[in-house]
User: Which sequence fits this backbone?
């Protein structure tokens, strides 16, 4: 049997109203909202689909849900997804309720529809399709965690605890879709991340701002110290920061170079309203794939309320993150930055490590990745598929590779203007349907591989 992709697309479209109920649950891990309700919803959903086994792992913070289905071949694919979403704030910038899925102009709007509830909706709609059309082509397993949006602090422990359940031949990860040039992306890895705080205290109390000629200001002290770590060339100025960076393989480097001309800087400018109308690097796609970063996420010091209060702040804090590439250990990286602050004359600025995830890349020449590319070329068009070594964001791929020793590949339903983490997060319904058809064909082809 060769699956009829058009038939799959019609099926998942008809299932959408039911599938979209998943989007109504505000499963915001940062706020602890909707977690129990979502776990119950997922276990009921899997049982309704006829899963052979449904198990909840709940020994850590937010539970993880595992389910398995028996197919018509001995091959096994494991799906990774997460059920938690980002907070919907700022609410006044949403054009509709973020937890009331709404279709406008061929797009489905809701918090989490791109990242990444929409992908699980697609995957489970495909499961139902096969079960109503002769059975699943291969064995399927699902592992769905609830802490991805807070850095997956426990997923490594969950994966180890669930190791006996996770054996598989390949892993399909969350995330993927169409890029700025409308080409379908197959993503083989994630960047790592180190999240940390910087803090400095210069006095025991705030002071009147008239004393600024001779009193230290914690806010100035903090920003001046942080500025020594990052130059106008956008490079991190810390000894050893780049020492262990693993370069791309020649094949991966070639894939990246081929995609640079497709990167639509104007689309990025339009999507995010970039103030000066251009991006500050010559090769933004190459940079986001291959370069580590340091970012100030937020600053806090002194009086921040309405009106005027003329004070010298005694204490200042900042939240930062580094996006990392394979070879860079998150805690070690924060240590390098702390050492550099001391060397630069800012020993009083203390860095506090919060959480980290390691980077990971599957070999782009792996047979599973190449199968994904071949099937995608049949569905999307020969010149409409690209291989991406790693997505710019983080994700706990490495713990799953360590447990499964299987190749990992991210495919999904989003497009370049899906705006995950931002107001009016959305997917296009045509992409959702097409990605579902692609997944069905991929499962069928994979089941037939030797």
Assistant:
């Amino acid at each position: 049997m060769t699956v009829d992709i058009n038939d799959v697309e019609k099926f998942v479209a008809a299932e959408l109203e039911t599938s979209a109920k998943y989007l109504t649950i505000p499963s915001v891990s940062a706020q602890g909202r909707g977690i129990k309700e979502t776990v119950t919803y997922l276990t009921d959903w899997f049982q309704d689909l006829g899963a052979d086994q449904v198990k909840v792992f709940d020994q850590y913070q937010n539970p993880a849900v595992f389910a398995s289905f028996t197919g018509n071949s001995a091959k096994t694919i494991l799906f990774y997804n997460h059920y938690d979403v980002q907070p919907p704030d700022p609410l006044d910038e949403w054009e509709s309720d973020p937890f009331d899925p709404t279709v406008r102009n061929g797009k489905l709007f809701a918090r989490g529809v791109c990242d990444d509830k929409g992908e699980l909706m697609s995957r489970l709609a495909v499961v139902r399709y096969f079960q109503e059309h002769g059975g699943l082509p291969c064995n399927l397993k699902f592992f769905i965690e609830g802490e991805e949006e807070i850095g997956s602090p426990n997923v490594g422990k969950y994966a180890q605890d669930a190791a006996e359940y996770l054996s598989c031949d390949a892993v399909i990860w969350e995330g993927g879709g169409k890029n700025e040039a409308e080409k379908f992306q197959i993503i083989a890895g994630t960047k790592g991340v180190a999240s940390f705080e910087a803090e400095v205290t210069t006095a025991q109390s705030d002071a009147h701002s008239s004393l600024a000629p001779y009193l230290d200001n914690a806010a100035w002290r903090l920003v001046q110290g942080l500025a020594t770590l990052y130059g106008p060339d956008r490079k991190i100025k810390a000894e050893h920061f780049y020492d262990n960076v693993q370069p791309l393989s020649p094949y991966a480097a070639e894939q990246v170079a081929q995609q640079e001309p497709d990167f639509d800087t104007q689309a990025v400018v339009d999507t995010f309203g970039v103030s000066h109308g251009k991006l500050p690097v010559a090769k933004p796609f190459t940079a986001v794939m291959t370069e580590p970063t340091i970012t100030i996420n937020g600053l806090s010091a002194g009086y921040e309320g309405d009106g005027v209060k003329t004070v010298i702040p005694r204490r200042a804090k900042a939240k930062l993150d580094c996006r990392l590439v394979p070879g860079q250990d998150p805690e070690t990286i924060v240590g390098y930055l702390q050492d550099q602050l001391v060397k630069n004359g800012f020993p009083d600025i203390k860095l506090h490590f919060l959480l980290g995830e390691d980077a990971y890349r599957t070999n782009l020449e792996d047979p599973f990745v190449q199968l994904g590319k071949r099937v995608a070329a049949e569905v999307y068009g020969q010149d409409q598929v690209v291989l991406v070594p790693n997505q710019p964001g983080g994700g706990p791929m490495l713990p799953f590779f360590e447990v499964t020793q299987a190749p990992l590949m991210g495919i999904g339903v989003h497009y370049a203007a899906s705006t995950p983490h931002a107001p009016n997060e959305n997917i296009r319904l045509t992409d959702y349907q097409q990605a579902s058809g692609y997944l069905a064909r991929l499962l069928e082809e994979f089941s037939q591989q030797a």
The chain has twelve helices and 20 strands. Residues 5-190+359-447 form a domain with the Aminopeptidase fold (CATH 3.40.630.10). The radius of gyration is 23 Å. The longest strand covers residues 192-201.
